[in-house]
Design the sequence.
């Protein structure tokens, strides 16, 4: 009952914040709402850690592996122009180290957990879970890439993400999904569906209205 209540509270807050952002940006307050992205992501991260939950050593170690691995890949991309192409982060993704926002590592970890758990709800096949989970991560990234310059999240040289960006995203996502599958970590599936769903709704909506 306690875990169910945690999930309900987390889902409700996440939806309220995202719907408020959609309405606020749509009504012309883009600058105010988009600059609050770090707050939104930080809150989502806290709620995920609390309600998923990340509550034992194995989950913490795997989460940190995704966090550090995702952050390091982005650091290589930003500073050396490899893996994803040439790009730079803007002002609306929070505190940076070496040109890379700390929250991007958390986002890699969070997305890996929620997509992997979503797919595990439908199948026990390892390969399907790994490939489908990685595909969901790249699908969300596709819509994010088109909004990133508009929201000053990040910008690629030439203002368009190259094909290598998606190939690298998929490759890293495959590795992360493999680790998640082998670790046999499970969490709140309902929370996973809602978090991924609200993120997809947010970026798909603005993909068709702003990009």
Sequence:
């Amino acid at each position: 009952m306690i875990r169910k209540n945690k999930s309900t509270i987390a889902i409700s807050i996440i939806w309220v914040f995202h719907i408020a952002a959609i309405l606020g940006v749509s009504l012309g307050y883009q600058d105010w709402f988009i600059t609050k992205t770090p707050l939104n992501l930080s809150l989502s991260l806290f709620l995920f850690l609390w309600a998923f939950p990340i509550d034992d050593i194995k989950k913490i170690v795997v989460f940190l592996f995704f966090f550090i691995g995702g952050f390091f890949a982005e650091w290589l991309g930003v500073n050396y122009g490899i893996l994803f192409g040439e790009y730079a982060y803007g002002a609306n993704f929070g505190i940076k180290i070496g040109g890379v926002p700390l929250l991007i590592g958390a986002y890699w970890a969070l997305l890996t957990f929620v997509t992997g758990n979503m797919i595990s709800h439908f199948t026990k096949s390892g390969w399907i879970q790994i490939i489908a989970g990685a595909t969901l991560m790249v699908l969300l990234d596709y819509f994010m890439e088109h909004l990133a310059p508009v929201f000053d999240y990040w910008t690629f040289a030439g203002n368009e993400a190259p094909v290598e960006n998606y190939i690298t995203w998929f490759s890293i996502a495959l590795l992360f999904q493999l680790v998640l599958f082998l670790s046999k970590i499970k969490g709140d599936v309902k929370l996973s569906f809602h978090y991924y769903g609200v993120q997809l709704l947010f970026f798909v909506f603005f993909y068709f209205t702003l990009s």
User: Anything to note?
Assistant: The chain has one domain: 2-209. The CA atoms of residues 95 and 101 lie 5 Å apart.
